[in-house]
Predict the structure.
Amino acid sequence: METTRRQFVGSAAAAAMGPWNLEWAPADSVDKARLADAALNTAKRLGASYTDIRINRYRNESISTRERQVQSVNRSESFGFGVRVLVRGAWGFAASRVVSPEQVVRVTEQAIETAKANAEFQRKRVELVSAPKVVTSWKSAFERDPFDVPVDQKVGFLMGLNEAALKVRGVSFVTSRLSFVKEQKYLATSDGSRIEQYIIRCYPAFNVTAVNRENGDFQSRDSFGGPQQMGYEYLSSYPWLTEAEKAAEDAVQKLKAKPVDPGKYDLVLHPTHLWLTIHESVGHPTELDRALWWEANYAGTSFLTPDKTGKLRFVSRPVNFFADRTQPTGLATVGYDDEGVPGQKWNLVKDGIFVDWQTTRDLAPLIGRKKSYGCLHAESWEDVPFPRMPNVSLEPAKENVTLEQLLADVDNGILIYGNGSYSIDQQRYNFQFGGQTFWEIKRGKIAGMLRDVAYQSRTTDFWGSLDALGGPDTYEIHGSFSDGKGEPGQSNAVSHGCPPARFRAVNVLNTGSRS
Amino acid sequence: MLLSESELKSITDSILRQVKAEDASVTISSTENSHLRFAANSFLTNGRQENATVAVTVWIGKRRGQVTTNDLSESALKQIVEQAESIAKLSPVDREYLPTLGPQRYKPTGGFAESTVRLSVADRARRIHEIISTCEKAGVVGAGFHQARGESTATATKNGNFRYERTSLAGLTVTARTKDGDASGFFQRSHWDINQLDTGRIANEAVQKALSSRNPQTIDPGVYPVILEPQAVADLLGFMGRFGFDARSAEEGRSALSAPGGKTKVGQPVFDAKLNIYSDPWHPELPDSAYAQDGIPSQRVALVERGVIRSLVYSRFWANQRSLEPTPGPVNLIIEADGPTATIEEMVKASDRALLVTRFWYIRGVDPRVQLNTGLTRDGMWYIENGRIKHPVRNFRFNESMIEMLAPGNVEMVGKPERVSGSENRGSRNSLLPALKLKRFHFTSQSEAV
């Protein structure tokens, strides 16, 4: 039997005497300072020139629904520690879930054993730039901890989304999901730093599908909202219900939309779409580890190389891309990175010229820098930290340019919302992006919906075709809960802010022409 | 140390004794991983991890709750049972609930070697040193990833089923790039027994691919005949194996195997008659789990025979809705020739004009209606003319439908299957896949990436 939102809320109210606010299992109280001392002293005694220990707890909650039913309510918790040592210029890392002084000593010895085994054959010794000694704590900005909100409220929120979509005629399926993450991180380094951090992230998402059973066609539309480093207040500060209804209308309309004619079009890319293009074509190429071939075996290298710093024109216009680990609601915003370097803001592209990199303490000296920008991150206590992307954003125009003004100067173009299919080569030259909804622009006005649209370009050609940006009022921040990189694979949450932007004469494909 | 069967049984018994809910399932996974990366001909990061997680799922009046932790203390286990039951009481009815399984009989499959879990970090360092030395001698720059991992898993249900399995995996991937960055080669293999992992061969194959890719020529994108090495097939078809055969989405009208009028393509010759596609947990080169979805004992499952779709995959819920039996798999993916096989050399000799593709990268779905994917070639592609490899060529982006690619008449020759993993999976999730010679493949733009 299906459960409507009204029925669900009613049954929840009837059971309101129950323990609505579930308590987490209390952590066994651990003396983190004592454990840190055990790791640092052991490593020093065994010859480490640098050591850090992270003692972290991660809590996740996810609720999944489909149409008028809840599919799952899951909570998980993971607690443990990881010790990283540097011995004779070689890294060693080991981790365990058993958090005790004896285990910390044993695992530190394991890390030392690995480092020494590798140091025997190390060609190029790892060196670190210094970091300030910091003893502090930091908490991400949020108003309401989602882990304090009863499950029934969350289920009610999702059922409301599903109902808003299902009431649109022609909708066949809807799925929705809420994900919450809480990280409690402790870092101690042999530099003397002791840092506690507390970070909360929130990710509502839905997908609506419309099916034409007569001809076997189906179309879907994902939510635009995306994840944010915010508390439960995100669910009320964004118009989720309105968007669910609009998504349903879009999915139905896509079944009858006009297939795009392949060719050159002016594109106006909305922030709900452009963030991902920035992520792939600006964020990843400016990772210094890629440029130095550290990722050659998996993610790939970069078309940017150190000799191009300060010389390569990345964008035709005098625009700025900045990296920022202090940006409000940014998913990669932190107080400090995983080796004690403070979160900071710097330019990657200034006035259209590529000027700087994302760095860590072992990358910075390789290009002659004396300090790190603080990009070291590990997904969990058990993962070895390595360079990860900070929030990378595109500054809006200083003037108050609206989306309508961007459209007004387009004779034959397409406005794209939402992120769809995305693919880019291992040096970040050639990319192809789809989207969620595509709107034909004729003589400055929206002329109707298109379908089967993807655009394909080369990174510097594409950014070279940028000719206008929206103003400060059009700036939005979107992002990914799980950007994958590295071996073994780790995910990183990262955001990208941008205004809508206009690009001239971009190659557009019809992806459905052979269906 | 991985938890033993008796240790796992003791924990699941203890948890189930505390469950008050009508139904419950407990899964414990104990893992040990060790890995090492190298790049720019030098050692990079590494790690050793020991973890264990326990997931408790309960149903009270068909209302479901699940909690997972990695704290195996008695007090924590008691608390997660209570939390799972509290969540279940708050949750709406799980309309797809089916009672957990009672006692089942499982036929062991293998796929575990103690030597893999007991890896020596000193021995690994020596092997990686040898690989870097091979690269240095060849004048190329090496990067790679070595991993060894083990897992012991047990699941117990309140209805009396208990299953236990141990698996291990040792894998190595190597990329070799020429110093000028103009050519690159890649190779990977894995095995459950680290003693069977031929690290020297993997390094040499990557180096040779890099050296034979020097001085690539630029040719126009377009439709070409292709020879796909098993690695390239694995990169493409990982997508199909995961999503392609689900009965529910096909019958709901949102799959490439849906047919107009609410029907499916079961019984239709969707693929070339030279192809058989199946899953077999007891295959000697690809042992996989003895249990499939929800603990159903695995069986050999034929998905495609002589190009005809023989069956779709029914979950327990969807099978129940359709009054059918749930599908006891697939747990792995095997594609074989229905007929004679050919080596890559024979495929080259049989080609008037073709491209030999070693690997694809960054493959993403574009149109699920025809399983249209986009992605790029990477780490070696060569132009073939009159039965001979003429020269390496620069990379392409493709937009290709997996359905059209394997359609009747498009598959000209099929190789002997090899154990290989999609390269975006970092060496996990192996399949047995052959090289394929295809009549038409759609390359849509150039990429100067190396």
Observations:
- Chain B touches chain A through 101 residues (CB under 8 Å).
- The first helix of chain B runs from residue 5 to 18.
- Chain B has a mean pLDDT of 95.
